[in-house]
Amino acid sequence: MYAAEPSAFDGLEEQLANAVGAAASEVVKNGDMSFRTREWARALPDKLQVLEAIELAVGILMQSRGWGATQARERIFSAADRAGIAADSVAAVVAELAS
Questions:
Q1: Rounded distance between C-alpha atoms, residue 92 and residue 95, angstroms
Q2: What is the CATH number of domain 13-98?
Q3: How do the residues of the chain divide into helix, strand and coil, expressed in percent and rounded to 5?
Q4: pLDDT digits (tens, 9 = 90+) for 31-75
Q5: Alpha carbon 25 to chain centroid distance?
Q6: Are 59 and 95 spatial neighbours (Cβ–Cβ below 8 Å)?
Q7: Burial of 76 by CB count in 10 Å (0-12 exposed, 13-18 middle, 19+ buried)?
Q8: Which are the contacts of 88, defined by CB distance < 8 A and separation ≥ 6?
Q9: Domain extents for the chain?
Q10: Which residues, at least 6 apart from 16, have a Cβ–Cβ distance to it below 8 Å?
Q11: Do 72 and 61 form a contact (C-beta atoms < 8 A)?
């Protein structure tokens, strides 16, 4: 059984476990893990695109400024924090300026 809300089955664990012939702790644990795994898998392509954009900008800054990877990454995240925008937006500007 799956639910959109994390607390949808609160207080019903024993009844649900009895209905499927399992221990309550296993029913809740397995259901929750599967739901989280599915959400994580759905979000992964977007997260990889963000990471790719940031790492491209890191490489550009390393090449153009002579910075190490850590310093370039810190500068991207620091600029994003100061501007109140996402780091991949800063990375997109870096890439655009480099082209």
A1: 5
A2: 1.10.10.10
A3: 80, 0, 20
A4: 555 667 778 888 889 999 999 999 999 999 999 999 999 999 999
A5: 27
A6: no
A7: buried
A8: 49, 50, 53, 54
A9: 13-98
A10: 1, 9, 24, 27
A11: yes
